[in-house]
Amino acid sequence: MAEVPAEILLSKRVQEMFLDDEPPPAPYICRDGDTVVEVSAPLSPVPIIDLSLFSSSSTPCTKQQQELEKLRSALSSWGCFQAIGHGISSKFLDKISQVTREYFEQPMEEKKKQAKGVEEFDSYGADPVPAAGQFLDWSDQLLLHVYPEDQRKLIFWPERPESFGGILEEYSLKTKIVTDLVSKAMAKSLNLEENCFLNQYGEKAQYLARFNYYSRCQRPDLVLGLKPHSDGSGYTTILQDEEGLQVLKDEQWFTVPKLSEAVLVLMGDQMEIMTNGIFKSPMHRVVASSERERISVAIFYTPEVNKEVGPEDDLINEERPRLFKKVKDYADTHWAYYQQGQRALHTAEV
Q1: Distance between CA 240 and CA 19 in Å, rounded?
Q2: Where are the beta strands (DSSP E) in 45-130?
Q3: What is the predicted pLDDT for the residue at 120?
Q4: Which of 189, 347, 344, 151 has its CA nearest to residue 265?
Q5: What pTM was estimated for this model as a whole?
Q6: What pLDDT does residue 339 have?
Q7: Of the candidates 322, 304, 303, 305, which has an alpha carbon nearest to the alpha carbon of residue 313?
Q8: Rounded CA gap, 70 and 47, in Å?
Q9: For the range 173-176, what are the long-range contacts, defined as Cβ-Cβ under 8 Å and sequence gap of 24 or more?
């Protein structure tokens, strides 16, 4: 695949390559004339859901029911939605984006204080080296376990910017409130008991934060910031500062528009399992740009370790038989397949 081993390439970040005016090396080149149609923002009709309609006691029942039906439709067809009315102010979202940008704009020596080996997850760098024949993503990342607190590896939490840790802590707490609200709304949209999904995730559900930096690239037509994949989480919340994230639907890549007040909520494989295939875990990717760098912040929400999850019983009937068996630590299975450029959902099928 490449003359230079991926381990060596991963020791030099894509941000460095761009600043050194280097073209993308062979292991990053993955696009050779995509045949799938792309639909640019703002034409992408990614659904918008107002979460405030689910949290306010003053919302008329008919209005709330309409939004629940809209939510179910969005997750059954798109597998994602743009969440507004989530209770996190635009000012604070800007603060998250700003501290993320400040972190990645630091000298490389400062960021490498959190550097990781090629097989590790937490800290600064890139994904562990993929299987032979798989290309590398044109991006840098900082990956940190946030909850449960005993899973935090504080040695990798940046000391600079000084405000980073406090802002991440606050954003994580706010995100937990959002996931509670979303989980209950999803259950009610399917006429289930509102806490059923929260019970499946467990009291020690995992929250993993990933800060992404998508550097500019001389040849964005040859690389991808993030390879096509579905998430192995329950679901993921994504804050993006610029457009670049694309979702696959009906054999077309739809660019997710940038809405200043919105957070994208995107289903993972485990949510498709829990809903017995009603909600979809969509394939998505990130494209590169020659004109601007881009950042995003993703929080992966995943069931607690060793917690067995499976389709809700009330979603299994003669019309819709059981599609998936119960699984445990599915995220680990997902990762093994992801490293080979494959989906893992079939491993959970009945």
Answers
A1: 23
A2: 48-50, 80-84, 123-125
A3: 61
A4: 189
A5: 0.93
A6: 84
A7: 322
A8: 8
A9: 174/87, 174/88, 174/92, 175/88, 175/207, 175/237, 175/299, 175/301, 176/147, 176/207
Q: Output the CA torsion 298→299→302→305 (10° steps).
A: 110
pLDDT given for residue 93 in this prediction: 96
**Residue linked to tokens 């999904």:** 197
Structure tokens given for 38: 């792309």
- CB of 26 closer than 8 Å to CB of 61: no
Q: Beta 252-255 vs 37-39: how paired, if at all?
A: parallel
By the 8 A CB rule, do 38 and 248 touch? no
Question: Which regions in the chain score pLDDT beneath 50?
Answer: 1-3
- Are the beta carbons of 130 and 340 closer than 8 angstroms? yes
pLDDT of residue 2: 43
What whole-number distance in Å separates Cα of residue 320 and Cα of residue 348?
A: 16
For residue 12, the model assigns a pLDDT of 73
